[in-house]
Amino acid sequence: MKHLPELFANNRAWAHAQLARDPSYFKDLAREQHPRYLWIGCSDSRVPANDIVGLHPGDLFVHRNIANMVVHSDLNCLSVVQFAVEVLKVPDVIVCGHYGCGGVTAAWRHPPLGLMDHWLRHVEDVALKHSAELGGITEETDAIDRLCELNAIEQAMNVCRTDAVRDAWAQGQDLTVHAWIYCLADGRLHDLGFAVACTEEMNDVYRDAVRTRTESLRV
Fold it and tell me: Which part of the chain has CATH 3.40.1050.10?
């Protein structure tokens, strides 16, 4: 039987280090969570949400899945969005994709993956929707990077279309939905130009974000 003792040792060391810095750390953390952000990101092990934005446990409410998808039949994701918006009252929802995403790459190349094919079909739909632009990109890596960007924008738009977000805006709740992308090669985040704070600006912001190629943002 395998018990993974090294991970328990790591946990003990981490807990001791936290207490050494702040003896009340875990007591304070256990009382209640008040995150300011909902992060919807990819399950990729190289994209740890709290670390790349420099936040501590309790600061970020996180949902992750393959290719950072927001699918309207995914009750898990929709429940997370509803809880974050209606109960935690987060003022910001961030959908963050990343370059080199294995899920997006698989959706582009179409290898047979069994059950995962059903999930990645949603990314394929994004590629089909933007086929005119993607078809004009000659280098495959550049096309996949662009699909990673477009997928993050499309999933942020899907967040805007959820009942929880629409109801919050109808009630005047302070809530903005963002689309970002993370670069594994340098550890930098990039804003994809999508930040929507009400139903009325959804379509205009979406159109502008899709028209903007992110090369100009990589500074």
Answer: 32-217
Looking at 63, 77, 96, 98, which residue is catalytic? Answer: 98
Task: Give this prediction's pTM.
Answer: 0.92
Has 42 been annotated as catalytic?
Answer: yes
98 a catalytic residue: yes
Instruction: List the Cα angle 100/136/149 in 5-degree steps.
Output: 35
- What was the pLDDT predicted at 153? 98
Q: What is the pLDDT of residues 24-33, one digit of tens each?
A: 989 888 988 8
Q: Under CATH, domain 32-217 is a member of which superfamily?
A: Carbonic anhydrase (3.40.1050.10)
Give the burial class of 103: count Cβ atoms within 10 A of its Cβ; 0-12 exposed, 13-18 middle, 19 or more buried: buried
